[in-house]
Specification:
By secondary structure, the chain is of the alpha+beta class. About 20% of the residues lie in helices and about 20% in strands. The protein contains 15 helices and 30 strands.
């Protein structure tokens, strides 16, 4: 209590209400797979199909990832996290830009594709040196540290400039500062704390003749397959300049995976700029602040950049030929591992472990059946109309896309290894569920019939996974000559329906019996008799129903525990556990007294009451739907002395009707409806 000495009225804020338990999102999915571009082994948030295309490319014959993400968004998904996988052989296409140095070739900038992949070999860059600002230093300049000029328009601090005079070699310098009022370029800043590493007096010129000063900057044009995709202007070589090339086009800044997430821009820049290996500002200064150059192969020397210096990016690779299960699973990370070792171990699924908001995960590309797209002949060049005015730019010359390597077809043991790791992550984190796809062999209507899919389902027993059968046929944008559709795993469509159901009704609603979108057919038709065999085994069938489209007609987990038989029950419990865990952190280090216990109990009751009112819990009354115990009964003195506070929570989750039996008959002109009571599940918090 504060001590008051002066008479008067004082205001004190006393908040006795319990902190509320906020609802959390359960509709966010995580996908691990193969893409044609994009950051490797890093979780990237994607909020639309267009954004996925910008970061990870379009459909490809070597992976199902694009198909799964497209299906997710088409079926109601709003956000997912994507992890692209490849082997260590994946490399970025790049090219080194030399400086105008005397002697052997020395790279000044390295320009590379924004991510590894053979797509980078489709990029060309054109560099043009420009001089946006020009001025004159008149003869008889009084000071070598400050030059009075005709105009300072276009010049700024850290501007890279070229100074030329008749009969003298060109000199390159960096402007330390400008004085716009007195029209002065400052070469050595009078304030020591404001000086740049390049500050030096102006020497080497005839003081009786004027000196031409020109700014030096670069325009960079990026073409992909002959089509102009980006133009960057006024790029500078000076690190302190606001348009410093490597600072303006750095590598992608990965978003935070937990806590306050960072929003990515809708599309990444196609290239990045780095200092060439072994080059830094000190070495550039020692070389005389020389500009970028073009390497003359015939004469083996660097020469000034011409009006159009076009270079191709080379040596990009997808790294799929040696793709293995380790690239999908990664490895457990120890706190004693170095940053390099941690980066090596954080691959595939491990990258999703750090994403707190993911609640559905799938790995469709462990089932990949690679499809080699036939190479396309380049289109004929455009012939200009002779009647068009002269001087118009010619149309881009189309190029043939670069073709990468194909991934292997994984064995069933490899598939089981990855799916087991998928389930293991869900059981470890307890905040997500795995969507399992059947192997390709089990999803075909072959001689084994249902035996193959039943045998595969028998490998799993977990209430953190659900199994869906068969595969789906979708319109293939690649448009093969042999088929217009492609068979893909169902996990993308299933995850989309999970998200759609969560947003439309709630996580307590079973994600089933809603029409699927962006689908043509199933690979295996499941009739009523076969469905009766599959459903009790926890195999959720996707079936075409007459007049109702194709629908998921099952909502079971692969668990033998009857309390967690249904997907919505498992996911509701995950949501409640996570919401309570996040929203009750305020209780840590609070006094372990009756007031704190009462606040915690009231907070839990308010949250469960809201769930019951939404229909997530069973029971005609709140007392039938849930209970909360947090008093001296489960918090005796011996436990309170150890700093422990316990709250016991139990609730009856809503379970779906799988079998609706209608008995039609007239009994006293009325119908009688009876509901069975739900199973009560308990959560212990400490």
């Amino acid at each position: 209590m504060p001590t008051y000495t002066t008479p008067g009225v004082y205001y004190e804020r006393v908040d006795a209400s319990p902190p509320g338990i906020a609802a959390i999102r359960t509709d966010i999915a995580g996908f691990v797979g193969i893409a044609s571009r994009g950051p490797l082994h890093s979780a990237i948030p994607v909020q639309s199909w267009r954004q996925f295309q910008a970061y990870f490319g379009d459909f490809t014959g070597v992976g199902y990832l694009a198909y799964a993400v497209r299906a997710f968004f088409e079926n109601g998904g709003g956000k997912c996290w994507v992890v692209r996988v490849a082997s260590d052989l994946a490399t970025e296409a790049d090219v080194s830009i030399p400086g105008l140095f005397v002697g052997p070739r020395v790279g000044l900038w390295r320009i590379a594709a924004f991510s590894p992949g053979v797509f980078g070999n489709n990029l060309n860059i054109t560099i043009r040196e420009t001089h946006a600002a020009q001025t004159l230093i008149p003869a008889n300049n009084p000071s070598p540290e400050i030059s009075k000029v005709a105009s300072v328009t276009g010049f700024s601090r850290a501007a890279h400039v070229r100074l030329s005079q008749d009969g003298k070699d060109n000199v390159w310098k960096v402007v330390s500062d400008i004085d716009a009022i007195n029209r002065q370029l400052i070469w050595v800043n009078p304030k020591p704390e404001a000086r740049l590493p390049y500050d030096a007096p102006l020497t080497g010129f005839d003081p009786n003749q004027p000196i031409l000063v020109e700014s030096v900057e670069y325009t960079l044009l990026v073409h992909e397959l002959g089509r102009l995709v980006r133009v960057y202007t006024n790029l500078s070589l000076v690190p302190e300049h606001p348009r410093y090339g490597p600072g303006l086009l750095p590598s992608i800044a990965l978003p935070k995976t937990c806590g306050e997430a960072q929003d990515l821009q809708m599309s990444p820049e196609p290239i990045l700029i780095e200092l060439a290996p072994g080059m830094d500002a000190a070495q550039w200064l020692s070389q005389g602040l020389l500009p970028l150059a073009r390497w003359d192969v015939a004469n083996a020397k660097a020469v000034p950049i011409g009006p159009d210096n076009t270079l191709a990016l080379n040596d990009g690779a997808d790294g799929l030929a040696l793709l293995g299960t380790y690239d999908f699973m990664g490895e457990d990370i120890s706190v004693l591992d170095s940053d390099t070792v941690k980066q090596q171990k954080r691959r595939g699924l491990r990258a999703l472990e750090d994403v707190c908001e993911v609640s559905i995960i799938a790995v469709p590309d462990i089932h990949i059946q690679p499809l080699a797209i036939p190479p396309k002949s380049p289109q004929p060049p455009c012939i200009p109309d002779p009647c068009m005015p002269l001087g118009l730019p010619l149309a881009a010359v189309p190029r043939t896309p670069a073709v990468g390597d194909l991934p292997p077809v994984f064995s069933e043991e490899n598939i089981f290894q990855v799916q087991a790791a998928l389930i293991q992550q869900c059981e470890k984190l307890r905040d997500r569920i795995a969507v399992l796809d059947p192997p390709y062999a089990a999803a075909r209507d072959d001689a084994l019939g249902l035996g193959a899919v039943q045998a595969w389902r028998s490998r799993f027993d977990s209430n953190y996974a659900a199994f869906y059968y068969p595969w789906l046929k979708v319109v293939d944008p690649l448009r093969e000559a042999s088929a217009l559709t492609r068979d893909i795993p169902p996990s993308g469509h299933v995850a989309g329906q999970y998200a759609h159901t969560d947003n439309l009704v709630g996580v307590h609603k079973a994600p089933a019996n809603a029409p699927l979108v962006w689908i043509q057919d199933v690979t295996v038709f499941v009739n009523d008799a076969e469905h009766g065999v599959l459903n009790p085994q926890g195999i959720n069938a996707i079936r075409p129903l007459a007049g109702r489209g194709l629908r998921i007609f099952g909502a079971r987990t692969v668990s033998s525990d009857p309390d967690f038989r249904y997907v919505n029950v498992r996911r509701l419990l995950m949501m409640v556990e996570k919401a309570i865990y996040i929203s009750t952190q305020w209780a840590v280090f609070e006094p372990n007294d009756a007031f704190t216990r009462a606040k915690l109990r009231l907070s839990l009751i308010s949250y469960l009451l809201a769930l019951w009112q939404k229909g997530a819990l069973m029971g005609n009354t709140a007392n039938q739907a849930f209970f909360v115990e947090c008093d001296e009964g489960n918090n005796p003195e011996s436990e309170r002395s150890n700093g422990k506070l316990q709250a016991d929570v139990g609730f009856a989750p809503s379970k779906p009707f799988e079998f609706v039996v209608l008995k039609v008959g007239r009994i006293d002109n009325k119908f009688e409806i009876t509901e069975a009571s739900g199973t009560v599940l308990a959560i212990g918090l400490s």
